[in-house]
Amino acid sequence: MNAAINKRADDREVVIEVRGLRSQFGDQVVHENLDLDVYRGEILGIVGGSGTGKSVLMRAILGLRRPDAGTIRVFGKDLHALDEKDRVAIEQRFGVLFQDGALFSSLTVTENVRVPLLEHTKLSFRDAQRVAALKVALADLPADVRHKYPSELSGGMRKRAALARALALDPEILFLDEPTSGLDPIAAASFDTLIRTLHDALGLTVLMNTHDLDSLHTICDRVAVLAHQRVIVVDTLEKVEHFDDPWVHDYFQGPRGRAAETAHADATSG
Amino acid sequence: MEQGESKAGVAEWVQGDAGAAVLRFSGDWTLAHFAELEAKLDAIKPDLPERPDVDFNDIGRIDTAGAGLIAVALGPQSLQWLAEHDRDVPRELRALLDTVSEAVAEIFASPAPPKRNFGFIDLLDRIGGAVEIIWSNAKTLLGFVGLTLETFARTVFVPKRWRMTSLIYHMEQTGLDAVPIVVLLSFLIGAVIAFLGASALRQYGATVFTVDLVAYSFLREFGVLLTAILLAGRTASAFTAQIGSTKVGEEIDAMRTMGLDPVELLVLPRVLALIAVMPMLTFLAMMAGLIGGGLVCWGSLGISPTMFLTTLQSDIGMRHFWVGMVKAPVFAFLIAVIGCLEGFKVEGSAESVGQRTTSSVVQSIFMVILVDALAALFFREMGW
């Protein structure tokens, strides 16, 4: 890596460490004894069937849900053990893209992106406005969308506006919950490219829940599979694909999995 | 991006290997130093040749905001040229600059947000707009009333389509659960009116007519009006919020595609439930008001409950009770229909739910008082 770009510390530095996590809703146990490490500067894709608790895991890491057992450390610190000030400082290093965008419905797109800038930086109003406009443009949204309210946008546009807000503070860790679901293939591909570019240039760590096999092939460095209430395997896609588990087998060797693999192989060789 | 140790970036001209001046970037080009960095770039911008030699090798951290500034300062042509000729720029940084520069170009091309005017013509314009909205609201309300009645007529003879569970549920929610507040408020207002009447009538030595005052006002007006206003605040708002949030969640569209009629499923049970319970609540309100007034009469005027009841029986005709009671179902219908209609008007956002809820409460209270005033005139002319 060239010295000109953000210097990455040890490539194997663990930024998120989940140990022995249990999450349960009443009697229903979603995670039991779940372990997961996320290294700095990697793009980790989390896959799993519906209801295996991908979103719950993300919410737990973000500190939105207190673990019923086990510990979660982000940047070496347990969010629930920190006081308000330190927690907010860490949260500013997160960017989160929720599944349905979770944009503030009473604010326009630019205002949504401006909120964290005005709250957490010393930018003047005018600068915040321009930086917000830059982020909106980075997320590939046309200029006329900037002054619209979330309810006036299509699902895909809302998603990109939410990405712009997630990127507002140039976070170190980007959490993406199903980022490409509901996007057309072209938009999904450009989304993947954008994430990859930002990841390469800024050394972003990305944790994404996804069902999009193309995203897994194109941008993920490693893939974690959630099943049987825990992470059954975390490794590069090639190794995960051949992991011995019926669900994993069906997932990657099914018709869609094969199609995505072939497409990716063609793209890289061609 | 640890804060604290970060040093603002620097852009300066240095002597390059080939002797030519090279623009060297160093330090951190991040959001934290945004204003400072922009000032520095503005300072060197006038001297910038079309195709500057650039050196990024000493740059520290950089983020999209910093890259955006650099992209703006260098301009798209220079970046293009750099991308083609300068192999020193690391691939990742170049990708970032390219991405950002595309975005920046768009920002410059974007139109300013629409300006708002505050002149006299605009004032007239807005007044006209508001009047038009009132007119179209009135039409929509009448249309919705018609739709509700039509749906009622269609389903009333088909017992299979009566939504009994929903009806009973809403009767409990809007009726039974409202009993304590309606009774308490009416009781207090009854007492207050008795106090007022007692002090005003004392000057004429006619305190005994306090009984008539309380009875007239509660039977004819206050019992039903208080109930209606309470239900407008409590139930119309609830109806709007309930139907509004189902609309936000596309549930109403889902119903339509399944061939279910939202008016039949959502509106009728609510309207019928309110029409059924409102007379009962009105009756309770009248009784509570009379008891409140009676207690004050007993305590401060020395009119015993027996005397109170005797006066009531001899002076106040049954028709006053019916004049009040007959308004209850009408008000109930108005409140429920307005509450439901406003719910259907919700569009997409949580904010819209809030606006519609406010509007439903204001409108239903307004309509109730308007109709009450018209009814008072009518009853007066009829001599009831």
Could you characterize what this model shows?
With 270 residues, chain A is an alpha/beta fold. Chain A has ten helices and ten strands. In chain A, the strands form two sheets. Chain A has a six-stranded mixed sheet. In chain A, α4 crosses α5 (155-166). Chain A is globular, with a radius of gyration of 19 Å. Chain A starts with 13 loop residues before the first strand and ends with a helix. Mean pLDDT of chain A is 84; it is low at 1-10. Chain B has 13 helices and three strands. Chain B has 384 residues and is mainly α. The model of chain B has no long low-confidence stretch (mean pLDDT 87). In chain B, α7 (210-248) runs antiparallel to α9 and α12 (327-344) packs antiparallel against α13. Chain B has a three-stranded mixed sheet. In chain B, 73% of the residues lie in helices and 7% in strands. The chains are: A alpha/beta (270), B mainly alpha (384). The A-B interface holds A 2-7, 89, 93, 105-106, 117, 121-124, 127, 130-131, 133-135, 137-138, 142-144, 146-147, 149-152, 167, 169-170, 172, 194, 197-198, 200-202 and B 1, 3, 30-32, 34-35, 38, 56-65, 67-68, 89-93, 95-96, 99-100, 102-104, 106-107, 109-111, 113-114, 347-352.
Q: Tell me the series of helices and strands of chain A, N- to C-terminal.
A: EEEHEEHEHHHEHEHEEHHH
Structural class of chain B: mainly alpha
Helix content of chain B: over 70%
Q: Name the shape of chain A in a single word.
A: globular
State the helicity of chain A in percent bands: 25-40%
List low-confidence stretches of chain A. Answer: 1-10
Q: How would you describe the shape of chain B?
A: elongated
Number of strands of chain A: 10
Structural class of chain A: alpha/beta
Alpha-carbon distance between the termini of chain B? 80 Å
Largest interface, C-beta within 8 A: A-B, 42 and 45 residues
Which stretches of chain B are poorly predicted, pLDDT < 50 over at least 5 residues? Answer: none
Report the mean per-residue pLDDT of chain A as an integer.
Answer: 84
Largest beta-sheet characterization of chain B: 3 strands, mixed
Q: Count helical runs of chain A.
A: 10
Q: Biggest sheet of chain A, in brief?
A: 6 strands, mixed
How big is the Rg of chain A?
A: 19 Å
Task: Summarize model confidence as the mean pLDDT of chain B.
Answer: 87
* Strand proportion of chain A: 15-25%
